[in-house]
Design brief:
- The chain is an alpha/beta fold.
- It folds into two domains: 273 residues, Aldehyde Dehydrogenase, Chain A, domain 1, CATH 3.40.605; 182 residues, 3-Layer(aba) Sandwich (Aldehyde Dehydrogenase, Chain A, domain 2), CATH 3.40.309.
- 37% of the residues lie in helices and 20% in strands.
- The chain is built from 15 helices and 21 strands.
- Helix 3 packs antiparallel against helix 5, helix 5 runs parallel beside helix 6 and helix 10 packs across helix 11.
- The protein starts with 7 loop residues before the first strand and ends in a 13-residue tail after the last strand.
- Belongs to the aldehyde dehydrogenase family.
- Keywords: Oxidoreductase.
- InterPro entries: Ald_DH/histidinol_DH (IPR016161), Ald_DH_C (IPR016163), Ald_DH_CS_GLU (IPR029510), Ald_DH_N (IPR016162), Aldehyde_DH_dom (IPR015590).
- It comes from Actinomadura rubrisoli.
């Protein structure tokens, strides 16, 4: 059962504070991944709609938005966060219908998005310029100003979370935004737009254009009226966007996924490590950029740990996402399910042994479901260990000593997050310093928080999200010098 009696029809885009139909008049069907049925539609925006949205964003940038103080901007973000909190259950249900995450996870994500917005609401009037000791007869200082119009492009795996990651700092710094969500999960973006209007943001500060990446997305990132592009997506997508943004030398920031190492040394608290390793591998049906998808176990503990890991994995309840008992739901799309099966086939072909999972859960005849799967016998250079599966597939690999663990962990083109387990504090510092990742956790995994900068090394991206560090991603620093000297200026062209 979908839990919704009729298809929800969303026909309008949010542009300039008004709900307007797309020029094409077309809509995109949203598929419930648990039932494979259409449950909602969203408007299919394209190039002309993007042009209107960017124009509205530029007008707002020069209009009433620019005359608000930073404190007033922060107050509006607080109002938006209160509205998200009020509607958390409803928005969570919408997100579950759209992308298949269990309801308890999506409601939790909405409530965490509330905290993200509140953090940046509080940060809005804490950003200050500096007085520079330039010379005694001049006043030199810096101004922190908005970049301008921001194109925010978000993926389908955690939509509402990532709306807050991008809107929070962009709006706190005084920018205006055109948001282009994934065409697979756009319903919550429309709902967010309604809350933006209810919160009282001036028209054009936040514009929402739903549509396909090849049309709306491509036009947005290459648009001459856009000053910055912020994208969460795949590495090939980031490459294409970077090329499109190059003509205007747009500011860009990317988070592009990972193939994260999770290292367990023999002196670790193995009980806690098994619990966290299971969750870090399979949460969100494996559809996360920061899974601990390469699990490295010191050889002495390998058999015992793997046995405990398999037992725990086999207790994961895969089921309908609206069922409170469900741990993980379906993939978000048929395409993603097919991709996971491709990697399962590749792992088998390369000599890997599936020790649990690999098939369709019993009793789930429809929907994009697959069992959590553990491979052993695959090396660190295997396809499954090298490429981002974006499904619930874990590769377990033994190692002998610290040096080998670090070498294996860093032998990847990605560098988003990494984790290690040890009771040796010297080893914790030593290994953390050597791991090539934007976030390294010890005796936990992937502590993502609004206060912690988050981003990647290597192919995992450019720039950072979250924390006060991200505010500079959405700012220009202007130096101003006021000379009040009475002395005659130097004249380099004076006649000798």
């Amino acid at each position: 059962m979908t839990g919704i009696a009729t298809v929800i029809e969303n026909k309008d885009l949010l542009i300039g504070g008004h709900w307007v139909p797309p020029v094409s008049g077309r809509t995109i069907a949203s598929i419930d991944p648990a039932t494979e049925e259409v449950w909602a539609t969203v408007p299919e925006g394209a190039g002309p709609d993007v042009d209107r949205a960017v124009a509205a964003a530029r007008d707002a940038l020069r209009g009433p938005w620019s005359r608000l103080t930073a404190t007033q901007r922060g107050r509006l973000l607080h109002v938006l966060s209160d509205l998200l909190e009020r509607d958390a259950e409803r928005l969570g249900r919408i997100e579950t219908m759209d992308n298949g995450k269990p309801l308890r996870d999506t409601v939790g994500e909405v409530r965490r998005a509330v905290q993200w917005l509140r953090y940046f609401a509080g940060a809005a009037d804490k950003v200050e310029g500096t007085v520079v000791p330039y010379k005694t007869d001049a006043h030199a200082f810096t101004r922190v100003e908005p970049v301008g119009v921001v194109a925010a492009i978000t993926p389908w795996n955690s939509p509402i979370s990532l709306y807050s990651w991008k809107l929070g700092p962009a709006l706190a710094m005084g920018n205006t935004v055109v948001l282009k969500p994934s065409e697979l999960t756009s319903v919550s973006a429309i709902e967010l737009g309604r809350l933006v209007v209810e919160a009282g943001f001036p028209g054009g500060v936040v514009n929402i254009v739903t549509g396909f990446g090849r049309d709306a997305g491509a036009r947005l990132v290459g648009h001459p009226g856009v000053d910055k592009v912020s994208v969460t997506g795949s590495y090939p997508t980031a490459q294409a966007i970077m090329r499109a943004a190059a003509d205007g030398l747009k500011r860009v920031s990317f988070e592009c996924g990972g193939k994260s190492p999770h290292i367990v040394f023999e002196d670790a608290d193995l009980g806690r490590a098994v619990t966290v390793a299971t969750h870090s591998a399979f949460r969100s049906t494996g559809q996360s950029c920061s899974l601990g998808s390469r699990l490295f176990l010191q050889r002495h503990i390998y058999p015992e740990f793997l046995d405990a890991l398999v037992r725990r994995t086999e207790r994961i309840r895969v089921g309908m996402p609206l069922d409170p008992a469900t741990h993980i739901g379906p993939h978000t799309s048929a395409e993603q399910l097919a991709k996971t099966h491709h990697y399962l086939d590749a792992g088998r072909a390369e000599g890997g042994r599936i020790v649990t999972g690999g098939g369709r859960p019993e009793g789930l005849d429809k929907g994009y479901f697959v069992q959590p799967t553990i491979f052993e016998g695959l090396g660190n250079r295997s396809t499954v260990a090298r490429e981002e599966v974006f499904g619930p597939v874990l590769t377990v690999i033994p190692f002998d000593d610290e040096e080998e663990a670090v070498r294996l962990a860093n032998d990847t083109s990605y560098g988003l997050v990494a984790g290690l387990w040890t009771r040796d504090i010297a080893r914790a510092h030593r290994v953390a310093a050597r791991l090539e990742a934007g976030t390294v956790s010890v005796n936990t995994f992937r502590p993502v928080h609004w206060t912690l900068p988050y981003g990647g090394y290597k192919s995992s991206g450019l720039g950072r999200e979250n924390g006060l560090a991200v505010l500079r991603e959405y700012a220009e620093i202007k130096s101003v010098v006021i000379d009040y000297s009475d002395a005659e200026p130097d004249d380099p062209f004076a006649v000798a």
